[in-house]
Every structure is written in C-alpha cells, then in structure tokens.
From TrEMBL:
Protein origin, superkingdom: Eukaryota
Pfam families: NAD_binding_8
Source lineage: Eukaryota, Fungi, Dikarya, Ascomycota, Pezizomycotina
Signal peptide range in chain numbering: 1-19
Matches recorded under InterPro entries: FAD/NAD-bd_sf
Keywords: Signal
Annotated protein name in UniProt: Amine oxidase domain-containing protein
Amino acid sequence: MFPLVFSITLFSLVYTGGALINEAAFSPDHIISKDVAIIGGGASGTYAAIRLREDLKTSIILIEKEPELGGHVETYFVPETQTTLEYGVQSYIRYGHAVDFFARFNVSIVPFAPRRLTNVNVNAETGALLEGYIPPTNNATTEAFQRWLKIVEKYESILNPGYWEFPAPDDIPSDLLLPFGEFAAAHNIAAAVPRIMTISGIGVGGIKTILTLYVAQAFGAPITRGVIANSLFVPEGSNSLLYQRALTQLGSDVLLSSQVRRAVRDETGIRLVVKSKRGSYLIKAKRLLYSAAPSLHNLANFDVDEKENKVFGTWTRSWSFLGVAHIPCILENYGISYVSLEAVPSDHLAVRNSPFSLGLTSTGPAGLGLFRVLFASNYSLTYDEAKATIQQNVQNLVNSGTLNYTGDCAVEFKTFTDHHSVTSEQTSEQLRAGFIQDLYALQGYRSTWYTGSLWGVRYSSNVWAYTDTVLPRLLADISGG
C-alpha cells in the first residue's frame, strides 16, 4: 500500500519556485479549472473577461484584489445630494470598440463637458501666485496640437494600440529617440505641452529629458484627434456603472478581494493559489492573462524567471494619489495648479519641473466646497505622507497670501486612494538594444499573456483596443495554432 499512497501524494503536489502546491489540501468546490485565468479587474481585465466568455466562448476566472471592478475608475457618492463624482477616469476616446462596449451594457454616453473653472497658477514651492508666467493662448495651443497630430499620425501604426508592429532596433525613427525638449523646440509644439501633461499625467519632475517616444505613447494620435475635435465622451450617470453591470454579468466567474499567493507557470498551463474572503482556491488554467501592471513588486508571487526579470526589472515605480476633499479656503469653481518657477515667463515644458505635481479642482455640487485632488511625485510616499504633503501645500496657499483666508485650512478628505504603477520609460540605448522586442517576446511565454496600459497606450479605449489584439493570439496559443 505504501507505493500507492506515495504515488497519489506525489501526483497532488505541484512544484512552484521552491514551494509545493498540495492539490489535496483544497476541497473540490475550491478547485477551479478554466481556459483562462485573468489577473486584474481594471479596464483591460474586465474587458477581456467579457470578450472571452461572452463573445469568444472561452471559460474564465477573473481575480481582482479590490472589492469591486474598475481599476482607475473612481467614483465618490455624495451623501448630501445623493449624486456621484468621478475623480478617477474623466473621459473616453472614440476609438476601437469603446462606444460599443458601453452600449452592450445599456450605458448611455454623452459628450464630455469639463467644468468651467477659474484657474490659478501658483508657485509649486511656496504656494504664492506665480507672477510673470504667461500661459499659451487657446489659439496657440490649438495650432500646436494640429502640428503634433501630423507628427504622431505618422507613427500611429507602430504605437497604437500597441507595439506589435514596432520597428527593429536599427529602424526606430530618429525623432522618437530625441529628448522631448529638443523635439518640441524643433517642431514648435511647446504650446500644447501644458495640456498634454494635464490630461496624460506625464512629466512629473520634468518632461524635457523624456524620449519623444514616450510622450507620443502618452498622448498619441487617438487622444489628440479627440481633443482637437472635442469628441471625448462620458457615460451618463457614473463611470462605475459599466463595471457594476459587467460584474453582475460575470457573476461567480469573478473573485473579488483576492490575491495570488503562489503560482506555477510553464508550457503546460498555470496553477495559482488564490486567497480570498471565501477562503483559498486552487486555480488551474490553460493560460494566464495578466492585466495588472507587471512590476516585480506585483509579480512577487509569480515565480519570475531570469528572462522576465531582465525586462520587468528595468521599470521603475511611480507614485500617484487622488481623491475628493473638502477644502474651505478655496473658492468654489476655482482650480489651483502648482507650477514650477522654472516655467516663468513662458517655458511651457517646465511647468512640471518640480518633484511633485498637484492639482485642486472644484467639482460641485454647489455649496459643499468639494475639490478633486490629484497628486503625483517622482519619489516614494506613503498614503499618510501624501495626505500630509497635500495639506501642507494647501496651507502654503494661505500662508503666502494667495487666498483671502486666514488661519488653518483643514483639508477633509472624503475619499483618497492611490494609483501607483511603474514607469516603462527606457533610454535610447535600451531601445536600440531591442527592449520592445524583448518585452513582446514575453507574450505567451510560460503560458502567460499580458494586456494593459504598459503594453501600449494608457487610456481605457486604447487599452480595450489593444486587448482585442491580444485575445486572438492567446486563443491561437491554446489551440496550438
């Protein structure tokens, strides 16, 4: 009997990075077998789950660490008025199947109409009014955007919605490898840069040394066309509605508040030990679709090997926070932008030449003194440190006399979260050494496929379009095609 018991026990153990997954330790109802396991329920993960299960007839399990789907969609419910505020994703591009995705869940869309605010530029260091800075005019901004569009449209096929057609290292267009400061001066597009940075979030700490490739990725042809044509849209009601209805449709094929604790990935498929509120599960799938940011921090439990570490180890962490706060010392219908002193008098590329970026914008409803808070830094900050830094910078407005207010201005955060990620920017030497090719060589490696903003462009509509290029390849891999 001993040999028989030994063989059964051995069969139930799966080796994973020095640890063993004992299948016998899981009850049958906590062992889930699917075609595809999806990590991350943000824009790309949710979209992939719906497309795979509903349209491509592929079984899935979606694993999301948060208690809801939606990723960078953040909605605050205002109890005083029974309404909602969107403080995460602000609008969507008419690109790919974005409009259709809202329609399939009966979510109506309307044109994006930003609130009209009185904007005040202040010195990022002191909070005092930024004297002497001359922002670009609306006409200059529009003309610069039109010049920028002609340029990025030339490279659209290699950047949007992803890098499948990216040229070989020796054939990368030289313009894309220029520091953006040189490129912007040569093509006279500086007037568009403040708005590019505001919408995309790129350039914290300075945009001049970033390669033009990454600015074109952050603000490429689709978003530029949308801005020029004023064709961006939003769903009626709430951004979260789409994800709430997707969750309802996916039902038990979603594990919320869940995280992968151990993994084994090889050419035969994948095994995951997942901890959730409902206990621990063993997930067995033919393929893994990873839609979260593939940083080494996030992949700590996925047994990353040398080939994967060579690519993902080059990315650096980024820090960003956002929320809704009651700020009594700032007038409603005002927006405060913290701008580097180096921008004076009209160096538009220098507006973010400080180690942090902070914007405070009035949101309504009237009489509540609520503001959307966006804070990003190029240095590490904890949740509490970020709150304290925001509070100090608001108080700087009072102390410097920018506001008609005296005393302490207590910032009351109604909701506050982080959107930390990784920065994928490489040097021109790394790109010429084949970084993009090495990155995309990981697609399908060890039965793992990837989607999400770090594989192309960061906007939801682009991410969905990129996901549509990944899924056929993933399914062909499963079928051996």
